[in-house]
Write a structure and sequence with these properties.
It holds the Pfam family PIN_4. The chain is an alpha/beta fold and 238 residues long. The protein contains 8 helices and 12 strands. The longest helix is centred in the first third of the chain and has 18 residues.
Length: 238
Amino acid sequence: MKKKTFVLDTNVLLHDPESILKFPKSYVVIPVTVLEELNRMKRLPDELGKHSRTVFRLFDSISKEGRGDLHKGLNLDNGASLRIQLHSKAGMLGDLTPSIRDNRILMSALLLQEQGEVVVFVSKDFAARIKAEAIGLEAEDYENLKFSYDGLYRGIRLIDVTKREVDEFFKDSILKVEANGWKPNEYCVMKSPENSSAIGKYDAADGSVKPLIKFSDLWGVRPRNVEQKCAVDLLCAT
């Protein structure tokens, strides 16, 4: 199956400067017109200016890692390739005149499609997506392409145990668990049907869950929930 080519509109980068990193195993293309618009905005003192500058810093950082170039494509950690598209389809297309920046961005995407790439135009502008579809491009809202938070790894898993296992964990400071995709130092919450519970951390050395580091006070900080207890444990770990 051919990789998709995601052509990003200016408003996507202004909404999320790191959006270029969020299309794994695909081609991410930024039309040169988008760069020109960002360059005009980078001196603004507001959020738009801040995000524009962030995009350019990100480009610079990736370029310095020596993974290719922005013309032919920079190889990203997520298996994607990032490049700048300098050319667009020449001439007018219906009433879409090249003198309008938004139209030049669409024509860049259309040129790539005519060259055989599987193009998806990504924009937060509904009108731009309508125009894209009218000229035969697949168009998507950036929000619809973002990964669900529920699908992200959170570093803490919930495991069902018996009350006896919880009691033994507090007594022996260890609970043997089955190898079930555990990550080293992964945190877990053990909970029984009787609502007995405990928090532990996976020790890959012996395949067991062990208690968090005990402390009474950390610079006056007292954790108030599971996530904060795990964070403090990380700070205290040697």
